[in-house]
Amino acid sequence: MKKFLTRIITACAAVVTAVSVCCGAPFGVSAERYSESTDFMAGKYGIFLHYLASMQLGGSAPLSSWNELVNSFDTDAFAKSADDVGASWVCITLTQSDGLYCIPMPELENMIGGSKLSTDRDLVLDLYNSLEPYGIKLMLYWIPGATTANTAVAKALGAERRVSGELAGGQSNSDYMLNWTVVKNQSSLMSAVSERYGEKISGWWIDGCYDSTGFNERVAEQEAEALKSGNKNAVVAFNNGTKAGDCRFEFEDYSAGEICHPNSIAETDIFDYSAEGRWTELGYQKHFLTFLGSNWGTGGTIYETEKLVKHCYENILSKGAALTLDVRVSGDGTIEADQYAQLARLNEYVSSMPEITLDNIVDNRSESTEAESEESEGAENMASSQTDTATDVSVKNESTENGGVLRTVIIIAEAAVLAAGIVLITVMLIRRKRVERK
Question: Domain 31-395 is in which class?
Fold first, then answer.
């Protein structure tokens, strides 16, 4: 009898485990603390491209002009320049407020009724093919919801109302609130793009993840899952503006790290920022992002070169932190001359100093156990999510979908299997008593 009971219990446990693994796969997107997935960033730097129709052509540029400009981008020449200046990765914008993409986006165009918003050329694919021979990683910039300039697209995605208020630095926030319809639609687009490129994309930098728009833990989980659907090892960061220094959600792999707001560049320039080591306080890859010009996507330089390169090496890179520098590129992908010279000098300086490796960077991980840190972070995120009064009610109180449904399925399945096991045990005990009476 004991052997039989043991078999029943073992079988129940096996079924429960199988159901949990099969149904629980989408929930494996939580970022691992002190993760090796960010090794390619540790002590390295990359370049950021605000390659947008509104920045390159000004105003509301027609798609025909955008198509023509994107077709002129010489990815081979750009990749050589990126290698010449020592970049370990390149991050390029897919779109921003203007809503025009630099890649084909049939999924979005079908969603909005067929209107063209994307280029014929796949600039991302061509850029990857040019960067890959140099070993330079490709990362993509995106936004978590509807674009602000195209109200028809915003409505098609499910956006209903805009935020009222200001962001850090006095910048007006006219973004749309993130209701759950917008999140689901955007996540489906993210999945489509991620799966299209697969392992060609090494990371994502998602902008505009503001508390005021309703971006919270649940949205982060949904979109991180979508972004990693094509490459589970891709790293993700959700940017909350210059006011956030560490990762806010357990689904981020590295800190977004935006510093140096253009409205206050004199007071908060790059020299005010240093790293104690590779890891943030919560245990994720430390990362800084700023611009070489006076604003995002602008030309010229605002820092004295020798002071800049020395600071970047001694106080950021040699510590193990990562650095991304935004540069101005022309329509054909040429890096603005002054910025190219500054980056080239940074590469020269770094190359002349002791090599930065995973073995000699500052590994400042917490002395507390990883389990304790995860428990503490989970409590912080839960508290933050519960007290976020700015979160859109339509996101916060939406009935559980996707991940929520799967969790429900798991619970029901586990309960059913355990109940069946209990019934079987009860039946066997009754039968045994009957036999003993006889």
Answer: alpha beta
